[in-house]
Structure of Triose-phosphate isomerase:
Amino acid sequence: MKVISKLSWLFVGGLFIFSGLIKINDPVGTAIKLEEYFEVFATDFSSVFLIFKPYALYLSILLSALEIILGVALLLRWRLRQILASLLVLMVFFTFLTFYSAYFNKVTDCGCFGDAIKLTPWQSFSKDMVLLLLIFILLATRRYLPETRTAKVASVLVAITAVISFGIGIYAYNHEPFVDFRAYKVGNNIPTLMKPSAPLRYKYIMAKNGEEKEFTDYPTDSTWKFKKMVPLNPQDGPKITDFNVWNDTGDFTQEVFTGNKLIILVQDASKADQKVFTQINPLIAAAEKSSKNIKPVVITASSSQDYDVFRHETNLSAPYYFGDATVLKTMMRSNPGIMLLKNGQVVGKWHYNDTPDIQTIEQQL
């Protein structure tokens, strides 16, 4: 039992630290997931949950940092009883969320490990049940885990962990994530990721006389009635399925993938920081004069009326297209943000706080 207790201690502490670091690396992405939960609960339970939506970013950093702090404190065996009780409360909360998502098919990705590791709702619930079991084991076998004898040193280490954790979250919010796990990260070719990596294969679920049967080839017997088609190799499907840009005259997705494009992403014109265009506008002007044949374009999820007002207020003069709001949030966590494409390949991404100069842009091409 002592060995099981020690292994549980290491696994739970390590997993909490890993999970917290993944989330705090991308606090905006975690906040988006929290907003999704708040909207679901507001619809299913009470609109009071919408009160928390404006504070999703703060809760994102707080909860992510808390996971790291609790994981470190557990491994240090600092105030073990209180830490285990806190972990139990946190896991009961997370287990409820993942069970509700899985059973009612509400949130298809819990965001437990951000964009680094995608889990289905039932996988997330299973993971939480295992963690919950391990925490109960730790509570029952606490005698095998004596508290640290250097409590003062452990207290200092936990405090340092807290400062570093919150610092990482605040820095990541004001810049791009330290590690980008998204499909639009630097080095990825967007048009390539919009195609399957291998031919997709399917199985067909058919029904006849109340009986269901699976076929790898579509049956020629017309007495079987089609119910659904399930991919056999979904991992080979396109990694990007929803990228599309357009304006009133048509679709311009392929145009964006041609040549060197300096893309200014304006997710929401009403919330975009207008002051930063004193730096972005000179960059656009310099790009238009560059010998590298760089074409600046704007992609926004705002309405044409809202964007028209915005571009006049910011003196933003560049051709603009429209895109899906969720896609733009996935591409860039800042509003506005800057992305550099070379024939559809992402060669640079910058938060508006890190707006580059034209020399930096040209060096990437």
About this structure: The mean pLDDT is 91.
